[in-house]
Structures are given as C-alpha cells and as structure tokens.
Design brief:
Layout (H helix, E strand, L loop, with lengths): L13 H20 L3 E2 L5 E3 H8 L4 H6 L2 E3 L5 E4 L4 H10 L9 E10 L11 E10 L4 H17 L6 E6 L3 H15 L8 H9 L10 H10 L9 H16 L5 E2 L11 E8 L8 E7 L3 H4 L7 E7 H11 L9 E6 L2 H16 L3 E4 L6 H10 L4 E5 L1 H5 L2 E6 L5 E5 L3 H12 L1
Parallel strand pairs: 1-5, 7-8, 12-13, 12-14
Antiparallel strand pairs: 2-4, 3-4, 5-6, 6-11, 7-9, 9-10, 10-11, 14-15, 15-16
Length: 423
C-alpha cells in the first residue's frame, strides 16, 4: 500500500521551503523592528477554550474543529485559530504583571475541517500579532497601519482595506434586536442556514454568500454604524482619523462583521484581487472582553491574523521572492585518495562556517560538474590524482569560469580570503 497525504494538507518540498523561510525571516525581523515579542502556544487546547472564546454558533466551532477525547476522557481540539490560545497563555502566565501594555506576535500551524480550495487548506498557517492592555483607538490604528506597511514592504500593491465598527457589546445588543426585527418579515426568503442564524446569531447573516440572501441584506438590513453609541462613534472616528494622517487608505464597509464572536468595535480585512473569490489576506479587530470571558482580569485588546499560504500565493505571482543564494562550494574529486582529501577539506570549510558539499555517488567529473551547476554552486574545488600529486586544488568560479590553483594544506584559509575579497 502506498500512503497518501490526508486531504486538505500538503507537503512543503525542499525546492519551495526557501520561500517559507524567506517570509518567516522577514516577519520576525519586521516584528522585532516594531517592538513585538514572539509567543508560541501548544498545538492543542481544551475544547471549551474555543467554544467559550470564539462562540458556539460560529462556523469554526460548530462545523470545522478537529476535536477528540484523550485517554483521560478530556475533550481536546487542534488549534483552529490563535487569539484564544494566546489569551489563555497571557492569563495563565500573568503577562500583565510584566508590563501594562503587551505587544506579541506568532507564526503557527492551524487546523480546520473545511472544503479545501485555493489558499485554504485543512492544515494551514497564520501569522498575527496582538496589542493587549489599551482601549484607545491608537492601538486599533497601529494594528491596521502595521499590517498594511508589512504587506507594502513585501512588495504588494493591490491592497484594499475594508473597515467597520460593530460597536460595544451594549450598543451591538440593541442593534441586533433592531436587525432581527427588520429581517424577520423575510425569514422564509433566506437560505436554511440564514434562517437558523436569524434566530441564533443574526449578525452572521452578513457573512452569507448566497446571492438572494445578500440582496435581502443590502435592501433591508439597517446599518450598524447608525446605531452606535456616542462613545463607539467617537472611537471609530478617531481610528479613521489616525489612518488618514498616517496615509493608510481604507473603505468603510458597514457589512463587515468578521466570523468570530469576540470582536467589539473596530473590525477590518485586507484583500487582494490576485486571490480570486476568496480574496482576504488577513482580518482582525478589537476584542475588549475576550480575556475577561476566558477568566482573566478585564483587559482590552486588538489584533490581526494573516494566512501565510495566501500570502505566498501572491508573492509567487508578483515575483516577490529573491533568487536563493546558496554560496555553495562544491568539492569535485576523482580517485580514492582525492575523495579522502576532499572530505577533509569539506570538514575544514564547514568548521569556518562555509557552505561546502561533495559528491557521495563517486560519479565522473563531468557528472559532478552538472550536479554542482544544479545545486547552484558559486565555486567548485577540483581535486584529482594530478592535483593531489602537486599537493594542490583547483578553485573554479562558476560565474565567470576563472580558475585558481591553491595549496591543498592551506586551501580552506585561501578560499576564505578569496571569498572575503569578493564580498
């Protein structure tokens, strides 16, 4: 039997791993520059964390989670999202005692049992960051601006920011009653899922992609922006003003509510047309009660999460990846004594932190040269019986074809000096 990978997962092969490493290295350097510290949480958590944090009526909790019982009968779930686990870690490890404001980021694998499609897998990866400890609009604006500039530094130009406010819990609760009352006369016209949402979680009706449901919402759903409290309205106005003065473009979208129940006030998404119908690169917003809901002290927060696979798709289309530089020195040998001397030279080069490789298949010099070219070696060292007799090696520059003879005993030091002069 030949085993196959599980549907909705993929193998990241050596020829494309450099793209992931490039992006991960960029992210870590970018967040370090913006004074965020990395956090890592376990691959699974107790199921109740997500049910309580995200919401029982969300699609993530009700349809998509990978949940199982361990040998002790405990219900555990592979992480479907990252904010709730990060909040759990924040509470459990008393991070609020370290500083009144916490800025953290993460890069991690997540799991959702949904229909696989372009840029959306059952095991997928996200990066994101959170600002914890402040209720003020400056944090909302920084989250959006920092995310936007991150994409810009990666060379993305086709970006659209959709922005909305869904109000505080108090004002949203009042709006939900108004919304349900306005839509109830059209109950039988909605799809089955929306009919259920109308009773349980009416705000989720904005997420429906069915055309006739969207038409009803467009024509008959009142705007939440018309039902914000004065405080919520001032907060949203301040966020917009800060984005304006920082030169970040955005469009206010009164239908943007996000798919998780913990959001309050600011919500946003950044999209790109290069992704097709599923065009969201990231999404986030404010959540002023999540830490409290999970058993911590009342602590406001705001954050964002971005899909790595989707971002890689865009970078691949736009040529956003640099050509990988191997800096490889390939040792070509011919003959038993030359192989031994070549192996010793490889070890000497690696001890001084150089990238060195030799052939282990005992192929011809011609075949080894082809392999060095395939491996994108910058240099090859040729060592055969004739060179060994002269106690020498031939160093060849693969870019311009120039060759230099070096003493075998000091070859490592001479190669180092040559490389330093080249840089």
């Amino acid at each position: 039997m030949q085993y196959q990978r599980i549907k909705g997962t993929r193998d990241i092969l050596p020829l494309e791993v450099y793209q992931w490493q490039y992006l991960e290295n960029f992210l870590r350097e970018y967040f370090k520059r913006n004074n965020y510290k990395e956090i890592r949480t376990p691959a699974f958590e107790v199921t109740e964390l997500f049910a309580r944090g995200i919401g029982d009526d969300t699609d993530v909790v009700s349809k998509e989670m990978y949940t199982f019982l361990d040998k002790g009968g405990n219900s555990l779930t592979l992480k479907p999202e990252l904010t709730a686990p990060v909040m759990r870690a924040y509470i459990q490890n008393n991070l609020e005692q370290i500083a009144p404001l916490t800025k953290i980021y993460y890069i991690d694998a997540l799991f959702r049992q949904e229909r696989p499609q372009k840029g959306r897998l059952r095991q997928f990866h996200q990066f994101g960051f959170e600002i914890l400890g402040t209720p003020y609009p400056e944090a909302d604006a920084e989250t959006i601006q920092t995310t936007y500039e991150l994409y810009r530094e990666l060379g993305l130009k086709d970006l659209q920011i959709r922005l909305n406010s869904i109000g505080s819990r108090t004002s949203r609760g009042q709006y939900l009653e108004i919304l349900r009352k306005a839509l109830m006369p059209f109950r039988e016209d909605f799809c089955g899922t929306c009919q259920e949402r109308l009773e349980k979680n009416v705000l989720r009706l904005f997420d429906c992609k069915v055309e006739f449901c969207q038409q009803i919402m467009t024509e008959h759903a009142p705007s939440i922006l018309d039902h914000l409290s004065d405080e919520d309205r001032l907060h949203f106005k301040a966020v917009c003003h800060l984005l304006d003065v920082s030169g970040v473009p955005y469009t206010i979208d009164k239908t943007l509510v996000r798919g998780l129940d913990y959001y309050t006030r600011t919500t946003f998404e950044i999209t790109s047309s290069l992704l097709g119908a599923q065009n969201a690169i990231c999404g986030g917003g404010r959540y002023d009660h999540l830490i409290e809901d999970l058993g911590g002290k009342p602590t406001p927060g705001v954050g964002v999460a971005s899909g790595i696979e989707r971002l890689l798709l865009i970078l691949e289309q736009t040529g956003g990846f640099p050509i990988p530089e191997t800096n490889l020195i390939y040792i070509i040998t011919l003959g038993e004594s030359a192989r031994v001397a070549g192996f010793r030279l490889v070890c000497e080069l690696r001890r001084i932190k150089l990238n060195a490789q030799m052939d282990f298949l005992r192929r011809s010099i011609k075949a080894q040269l082809r392999d060095a070219d395939r491996e994108q070696a910058n240099w090859v060292v040729i060592l055969g019986d004739e060179e060994l007799a002269r106690k020498a090696v031939i160093l060849k520059n693969m870019k311009d074809g120039r060759q230099t003879e070096l003493a075998l005993d000091t070859a490592a030091e001479q190669i180092t000096a040559i490389l330093q002069n080249q840089s």
